[in-house]
Design a protein that fits this description.
Blueprint: E1 4-11, H1 12-20, H2 25-30, H3 43-48, H4 53-57, E2 70-75, H5 79-87, E3 115-116, E4 124-126, H6 131-140, H7 143-156, H8 165-187, E5 190-196
Antiparallel strand pairs: 1-2, 1-5, 3-4, 4-5
C-alpha cells in the first residue's frame, strides 16, 4: 500500500501551534479540537470571564471539519517524478522547490526549506511567506513539460512505452488546481502543511 502526500493550507498561527504541539496535527486534519490539559481559573477569572491559558493556546478559527486536501496525487513511488516536474531537474534544489525533496532525503541529510512538524521527517510545513515562490514554480508546469519528464521518468524506471494523453492531462490538471489553491492561500495569507496519509 502506498503512502500518500496530502497537503492543505493553514494560517501561520496554526502552523506555529502545530510545530509546538505536533501531537495535535491529526486532530487539526480531522477538524477536532485538541484535548489539552485543563487549566484552573481563579475565582476572579471565572467571575470576570477572563480567558484561561487553554483558550489562549488554541488558535482562532481552528477547523471544525476535515481540512480540504489540495495538490497532485503524490505517493512514495512517484515523489521523485513530481520533484522533477516541479523543478525541471532531478537534482536537489533550495527554497520552496524542496517540497517533495522532504520525502527524498533521510533525516540526517535533510536539506530543504520546510519546517518538520514533530521531528519525524514525515510531516512538514511552509509558512505563508514561502508560498509565493512555490506558486511561481507550480504555475509554470505545463503539459508539454509533463510529457517530456514523464517519458524520461518512464525510461529511467524501465518502462518502454510513452505516457498516454490521459496521464499527461491528468497530471497537468492536478498542477493547475494546485496553483489555483495556492493562489487562494496567498490571498488569505496561509502557509501549507503536507502530511503522510
Amino acid at each position: 500500500m502506498a503512502s500518500y502526500l496530502c497537503a492543505f493550507t493553514a494560517p501561520d498561527e496554526h502552523i506555529n501551534f502545530l510545530l509546538n504541539n505536533p501531537d495535535h496535527l491529526f486532530s487539526y486534519v480531522e477538524g477536532e479540537l485538541p484535548k489539552l490539559p485543563k487549566v484552573k481559573q481563579s475565582l476572579l477569572e471565572r467571575l470576570f470571564g477572563r480567558p484561561t491559558q487553554l483558550s489562549n493556546r488554541i488558535p482562532k478559527n481552528w477547523p471544525s471539519s476535515e481540512v480540504e486536501m489540495i495538490g497532485p496525487v503524490i505517493h512514495h513511488r512517484n515523489v521523485d517524478l513530481h520533484h522533477w516536474i516541479l523543478n525541471g531537474q532531478q537534482e536537489f534544489v533550495s527554497g520552496s522547490g524542496t517540497i517533495f525533496q522532504t520525502w527524498l532525503m533521510n533525516k540526517q541529510e535533510a536539506d530543504h526549506a520546510a519546517l518538520d512538524i514533530g521531528g519525524d521527517n514525515e510531516n512538514f510545513a511552509f509558512l505563508s511567506n514561502q508560498i509565493p515562490e512555490l506558486f511561481d514554480l507550480v504555475k509554470k508546469v505545463n503539459e508539454k513539460q509533463i510529457r517530456e519528464i514523464l517519458s524520461a521518468w518512464f525510461e529511467f524506471n524501465g518502462k518502454n512505452e510513452p505516457p498516454t494523453n490521459h496521464e499527461c492531462e491528468e497530471i497537468t490538471n492536478e498542477y493547475q488546481m494546485f496553483a489555483m489553491k495556492l493562489a487562494e492561500g496567498i490571498e488569505n495569507e496561509k502557509g501549507l502543511i503536507w502530511i503522510i496519509c
